[in-house]
Structures are given as structure tokens and as C-alpha cells.
Design brief:
With 422 residues, the protein is α+β, with helices and mostly antiparallel strands. The protein has helices at 15-30, 111-123, 148-163, 177-194, 202-209, 253-269, 280-287, 294-320, 326-344, 351-362, 388-401, and strands spanning 36-45, 57-58, 60-73, 78-82, 91-94, 132-138, 214-219, 224-229, 237-243, 367-371, 378-384, 408-412. The structure holds alpha-D-galactopyranose.
Amino acid sequence: MLSDKIITWNEAVDPRAGIENARTLFVETFGTEPTGVWSAPGRVNIIGEHVDYNGGPCLPIALPHRAYIAVSMRNDRRIRLVSPQTREQIDELDLDQIGPRGSEYEVTTWAAYLAGVAWAFERAGYGPLQGFDAALWSCVPRGGGLSSSAALECAMAVALDDLGDFGIAGTVQAPHDEGRKILVDLCRRAENEIAGANTGGLDQTASLRCRAGHALALDCRDMSVAHIPFDLASEDLALLVIDTRAAHSLADGQYGQRRADSEEAARILGVNLLVEAEDVEAATRVLSEVGADSQRLVQRTRHVISEIARTRAFIDVLTQGPLEGERLYVAGALMNDSHDSLRDDYEVSCEELDVAVAAARAAGAYGARMTGGGFGGSAIALVRLNEAEKVARTVARAYADRGWESPHFLTAIAGAPAGRDI
Ligand code: GLA
């Protein structure tokens, strides 16, 4: 019976085990103890999708799933990197030979996410740095739309901050938020310029600036944040994450195309960012007259404006108190509408995500939607705590009925930000 099949839960490893895994890999590879181990979380965005680069609000939480990086500085400018997947062949680079995509020194492997951060530190005047050896071990599902790459960047950033004695980020217990904003910019530069993915800053902000037990209300106009208590388990609820394991890559053209559409619509509407265009009807009237691209630009703009309104409404609901009674249904409906808009207007969903969302809703989720950039990756469902397993099984069965490989599942609990002292 399909329903009796074991389903895979990808829960986070205990931080002590994560630290030990990275340390052991370092010792086995480089033959000495690392100076320290730093880590940074992946994230799920509860709502507010594809609005960060439009100046809108987002609402991520940091996951308990983290990337751990064991590091020691060297006396030269070499960088040596290893992960469990690359232990047969260590990546070696030189701090003087890291460059943007398309340049002589472009970095095309996963090393771009780590070396790119060192590059960004030096470009911003934090340096010159020494080279370093680093061993990475991560339990953030790779390619799952849960910001596994931002977790690498942010772990690297807090490590370089500590090792270079720059004093930018503060600690996990006493974070220095203004400094963390600077690190967000450096990590984002690494991702945009060195890794070649033109993403908007949501992921790095979540990884560096979230607080345990809280959702992060992020206003991307000025990157200001507010921390809202978010402890679903105490409300007998859970946020089920469904990692579809369908192919997903932000560096491919689709993400950049959506960004270009948004910029084009903003230009036609005469605003800097779509967040300034608050009225869907007025925007539709103007965009309808632009000829061949009008239908597409109307759809993109309708998603952005409506998603911004939904996210603000969700933040209001969450600020009012526990998700119970009417508030719970309102929150669920906002999540559902968000997905439908991403699917129909922004066109960044895919069959695997739509099937997961539909099955979760049918199994009793209060709301379900894709999360992150889309085109694969993960969906989330707001469910009763004691029904998470049932919803997961229903989704797995819907996949099996289609002959698809089962998704992986995890429950999202708001974890701690990047740092050494978790
Ligand atoms: C990816 C990007 C983010 C954001 C989301 C969509 O995660 O990295 O900057 O644009 O997609 O909300």
C-alpha cells in the first residue's frame, strides 16, 4: 500500500553534530584543527514572494537547517575548499583570481558562493584578507528552494568577519543588526556578481538577521526589519515544508526574466520600483497600452501589487496575536491566494509545486503555497500539528499516483541567525 510507504523527513541535525561534521571533514582533509566553525541557516519565506527586488515586504523565518563551515586562515592568498561531495577533489582558488561571470577569473563551481564573499569583503574595503582553508558541511537541502546557497555565503561572511577581527556582525545572542545589513550586501554582491544569480536580498537577510522563535517582517524599500513572535507549535500548528526535488536553478534565465519584466513595468508606470504603484487598476490601464508585451506586464504587475497587499495583511494578522479562529483562516487564505497569483500571473510555479499545493489543501491544510523563487524547489503548508504526517502522506500519494519520485518533508521552526555561538 502506498500510504504505508516510509516518507522521508529531512529534519535538521543538532548544531553540535553539524559543528562536529564540519570539523571532522576539515581535519581529515587538511590534517590540522580549524580555528573555528561558523554556521548559517537556510530559510522559508512564509509570504511575500518575488517582491523583494520590487521593494515590497517579505516574511521569512530562518530554518534550523544550517550550513556549517570550519575555517583556518593561511599565510598566503590561496583558498582551499572541501565539502562531502567534493572531498575527492579539493577546490583551489587564489584571492587575486576571482572575478565576475564572463571575466577571465570567473568561478563556475559552488566555490563561487564562498570565494565570492571573500571577494566582496575586499571590494568593500575589508581586507586585504589572508587566504583560508575551509570545510563545508550542510543540512540545508540543496536545490530545494530553501536558500542553501545563501546559507553558504552567510556562514562564510560571519567566519571572515570573526577571523579578520572586523567586528561587523556581533554574536548570535547579541547580534549587531546594522553590521549584519552590511554583510547582507556583501553576500548579495557575491551571489549577483560572482555566482551570477541576480537575486534580491531576501535570502541573505533571513539568514543573517532573523531571530529564533520569530518571523522577520522585512521591508525591502529600506531593508528595515521587525521581529514577530512565531511559535506555531505552541498554537498546535506546524509549517510543513514539501521539497518537491524538482529541478530548480535561479541562475537560469527565468528568474532574471521576471526581474526584467518588473523593471520594465516600473519604467512604463514612471516609478522606481513597483512597490510605489499601489493601484492595480490604474497600472493595468497604463500597461494595457504598451502593445505586444502588455498582457505579460499586466500579469506580472498584478502579482507584485497584490502580493505586497497580501503580505502586509499577513503581517497584520500575525501581529494581532496567535493564529487561531478567524485569524488562522485569513492567514491560510492569504497563502492560497499568493500561490494562485504566482502560478497564474507571475508564472513561476510548476506542475510538481501545484500538485503538492493542491494535495496539501485537499488534506486539510489551512493554506498552502510555493515558497522561494519557484520553478521547482519547495512548497509550504500551514497545518494542524497532529495532521502534518497525514498531509505529507497525501502529498506523497499524489506524487506516486503520477509516477513521480516522492518529495521530502520537513517542519519549519524559526531558528537562529548566522554566527559561531549557536
Ligand atoms: C529567491 C531569491 C530571492 C527572492 C525569492 C522570491 O529566493 O533569491 O531574492 O526574490 O526568490 O521571493
